[in-house]
Predict the 3D structure of the following.
Amino acid sequence: MEEDEISAKAILGGNVNYAFCVTVTSKSDGSQQTVFVKQAPEFVAIFGPDGFPLTSERMQREVDVYQEWRNILGSTDSQKYLPTIYYFDRTRMTVIMEFLDGYQLLDHVLVQEDGVHLHEAVSRGLGDFMGKTHAATHSSKLSSDRIAYLTQHFENRPMRDIQLEFVFTKCFKEATDEQRAGLVVNEEFMAEIEILKTQYDGKGDPQNLVLSHGDLHPGSVMINDAGVKVIDPEFTVYGPPGLDVGSLLSGYVLAAIHQAFSNNPQAVTNICQGARAVWVAYVDALKEAGLDNAELIRNIEVEAVGFAVAEVCRTSLGFAGGRLWLQFEDLHTKASAKKAALEVVDACMIGRHEHGMDLLLSKMQSVTKN
């Protein structure tokens, strides 16, 4: 009996784990099955064994949060929003899951040169996913025992510390005055960053915590024409709900600016409409689940705008690795786009407390290439 043929191709672009597309070809009938394989080493993969050490337990957290979400969503919505996990090897910290053939990363779609083709169903789906999972795990609705379990089990301290350093600290310490052009980094601004760090660390309002993806930028979302799959939740934490909403919307903000400086005004409009659809669907899902508290929703809104512009800031300052946003061959265009992004940050980091999501959306829509 002939053995099946197995081939593997590395998937590049990720920073933390190793990832492969593995295809099994049957020797008997030539049929093929393709799966996605991800392995978590005891270090950050992009830096290698001698680089940044990191526990491989992050893969266990990822598998666990997928199971929590499945329990919340039920079979229909789980199939709609989550990839299928076929096998998890805890000894080797390796997971085998559905290969999302026909899907694209959302961050790639948002910067398409021919103008974005972002179906509103994708944005609504993301808002719905976040709203349902957040509402079901919101600390105001859970028993003290359940909160204690989620807080401890999804503490995820090693991954949290990476974010605290690389997202909320490093860029503000190391950015030059030239990089900061368009942004006033004063005591008031840094006080806002400290508030976000406290919230991210789970030390903000104990009555406003949820089970969070933890790194839900558009590079953690796969989409097709009308569907969405959420991937890579190894940064999952029990933390502020605005974290997920803001991380996702940061990509919409950056994409709108990128398209404005690519002379695609219709794409800017589409992206802004998509961002609003995310927020509306999110709030609708919260309310449908019983979180119909205007003050609570307002707090999440302010939080979300803060996390969104913090990530926009980090990316614009050049501390977000190989992200696709605002990358232009023309150096003047590149500098102008980054300055425009930082001006959005400058307006919204403080202004969010009074004007919330409306301010962020209006600033996105008003960006034009000078």
Observations:
- The chain has eleven helices and ten strands.
- The longest strand covers residues 18-25.
- The two ends are 68 Å apart (CA to CA).
- Strands lie at 5-10, 18-25, 32-39, 85-89, 94-98, 104-105, 210-212, 221-223, 228-230, 237-239.
